[in-house]
Design goal:
The protein is of the alpha+beta class. The protein is built from 2 helices and 7 strands; from the N terminus they run αβββαββββ. The chain has one domain (2-135): TATA-Binding Protein (2-Layer Sandwich), CATH 3.30.310.
Length: 138
């Protein structure tokens, strides 16, 4: 029995030494990226956002994905609008048009893609965001 315990403890120690830590993904500002957003590295996401998997319809990943991402964020719509105005250029997106309103609309282009960002207040201190990416010939 003692030999079995020593063997079991040895195996646990060896296996735990071989285990790799998951890398921490970071955004443009160095903040952690939630795993659900890691497939979309060309788009910034406010911290503490939660993707709505039922409403999200995206194909592909990396910088070639297309479709719509829907997520909730614990920030008011005005703050989210300001976040995208500040962060999109850092990822080399060029502003095409923006409209700040009850449902704010923002359009950006980069290389051969365009994204539209819709931001709607989802309460006084939260918002729902839909980002749609499509191929676009300049």
């Amino acid at each position: 029995m003692l030999k079995f315990n020593v063997l079991a403890i040895s195996l646990v120690l060896i296996l735990s030494a071989c285990a790799k830590e998951k890398p921490i993904l970071t955004g443009v500002d160095g903040s952690a990226i939630p795993p659900a957003f890691a497939s979309f590295p060309d788009i910034p996401f406010p911290e503490k956002s939660y993707i709505d998997l039922d409403e999200t319809k995206a194909l592909g990943s990396g910088e070639k994905w297309i479709g719509s991402l829907v997520f909730d964020t614990p920030y008011n719509a005005s703050s989210v609008f300001d976040f995208y105005v500040s962060e999109m250029p850092k990822l080399k997106w060029q502003e095409v048009a923006t409209v700040r309103s009850k449902i704010s609309h923002m359009t950006y282009s980069r290389e051969r893609r365009a994204v539209q960002i819709l931001i709607e207040a989802d309460g006084s201190d939260s918002s729902q965001v839909m980002i749609t990416a499509i191929p676009h010939d300049n």
